[in-house]
Specification:
About 65% of the residues lie in helices and about 0% in strands. With about 325 residues, it is mostly helical. It has one domain. The radius of gyration is 22 Å and the shape is flat. The N terminus and C terminus are likely disordered.
């Protein structure tokens, strides 16, 4: 009797457990998380927050929505959440069976699952509290936390384990961490600004009890302080002759913040058209992703060293006598 073909014995398991599979699924998770943010913004900006007044069904025992704008928009966002569950679940499974094993990728992919569960729970609470502004704000910030995990997972899946070696001084590292804290506050203030404005999710939704002009000023001032700190960081990097890739990443982040600011001021002075508010909300997730990428680039991360093809795996270790193998997509 002839032995089974190598395709059945090695090729398929190798594809399912390969580092490249985890990297591709990590990218898919990241894209799906951003899509979830965009469709969630569409629900809020089209006043479709109660388009499906029940959960998990759309209306009482009816699973699918009637063919009208608000139910379709709300149900569309729920379908994106279903896709998010599937993609993040597949990413977690791939990270768990990955060869060689990576503890950091397992934890991060598990964080995706927890984030998706929190999003689903808060989505139900949003419906049953009739679009309470503070619940809606919390729902969005959980989405930003989920986005953070997806970004870090994607970055880590493309390199070896470990924190990396900083290529800048401790002062820049701490200043960048402070920048991320300020940026988080700016995003939260932006979410509160939307809650104080005309796009709170529905015509009868409870607004944040602060004047829109006052909330907008708080948001704008927080952004200006955050941008000022980024300019100071870039100036220090330039004076210290930091690696070009680090300075380039900082300039990309500065450009993204500038564009986001232009959209923000334009939407305010044009009386908050929904399309510009939606672009601004999507822009916040893009700026946050770039900010995490910039912070990540402040350290050198070695490529992962994989064992020879078909060799045994090693948990959190490298195999002597092997060469680094890129897992870039």
């Amino acid at each position: 009797m002839t032995s089974p073909a190598r395709y059945h014995r090695e090729a398929v398991p190798r594809v399912l457990t390969s580092p490249r599979a985890v990297l591709i699924l990590s990218w898919a998770s990241l894209v799906t998380v951003i899509l979830n943010v965009a469709t969630g913004a569409a629900v809020r900006l089209s006043n479709s927050g109660l388009g499906c007044p029940d959960w998990p069904t759309c209306a009482q025992r009816q699973l699918t929505p009637p063919l009208s704008l608000h139910p379709v928009v709300e149900f569309g966002n729920r379908m994106v959440v279903v896709l998010l569950v599937v993609v993040c679940g597949a990413t977690w499974v791939a990270a768990m069976i990955r060869q060689p094993k990576r503890r950091d990728l397992r934890w991060l992919s598990g964080g995706l699952i927890l984030g998706v569960m929190a999003e689903a729970v808060f989505g139900a609470v949003v419906v049953y509290t009739h679009l309470n502004a503070y619940v809606v704000m919390s729902h969005f910030m959980i989405g930003i936390a989920l986005l953070s995990v997806a970004v870090v997972l994607t970055l880590r899946a493309n390199e070896g384990p470990g924190r990396g070696v900083p290529v800048v001084g401790n002062g820049v590292l701490w200043a960048t961490r402070a920048y991320l804290v300020l940026l988080t506050l700016a995003i939260a203030a932006g979410t509160a600004t939307t809650g104080a404005g005309p796009h709170a999710g529905g015509p009868d939704a409870k607004r944040v009890p602060i004047a829109l002009s006052a909330m907008s000023q708080i948001h704008a001032e927080t952004v200006l302080v955050t941008g000022g700190l980024l300019l100071a960081i870039l100036w220090v990097l330039w004076r210290a002759d930091a690696p070009g890739r680090v300075q380039d990443a900082g300039r990309v982040l500065l450009a993204a913040m500038a564009l986001q600011g232009i959209v923000g001021y334009t939407q305010y002075f044009t009386h908050l058209p929904a399309i510009l508010v939606g672009i601004h909300v999507l822009g916040s997730s893009i700026v946050w992703s770039i900010a995490l990428w910039f912070h990540h680039r402040l350290s050198d991360h070695a490529p992962e060293v994989l064992p020879p093809s078909g060799g045994p795996d090693a948990d959190e270790s490298t195999t002597p006598g092997t060469e680094p193998v890129s897992v870039s997509a």
